[in-house]
Write a structure and sequence with these properties.
Blueprint lengths: L2 H25 L36
Length: about 60
């Protein structure tokens, strides 16, 4: 095989791996999975003007 053929094989292999790996990355977005603790408006849309949730004080947590 010459250098041109090796390059073609590498490019083909790259695109084959990209096509196989792309769908799992796209499904990892979780577009239709609502988050339970997001404040909602009356119509069901997220309330982006609501105050941020308070986190527990980590200094007082005992193990």
């Amino acid at each position: 095989m010459d250098v041109r053929c090796d390059r073609a094989v590498n490019v083909l292999l790259f695109f084959a791996i990209a096509v196989i790996a792309a769908p799992p990355a796209g499904f990892g977005q979780w577009l239709h999975c609502p988050t339970a603790d997001v404040p909602r408006k009356a119509d069901g849309s997220p309330d982006l003007t609501a105050p941020a949730p308070r986190l527990p004080d980590r200094n007082r947590v005992t193990y």
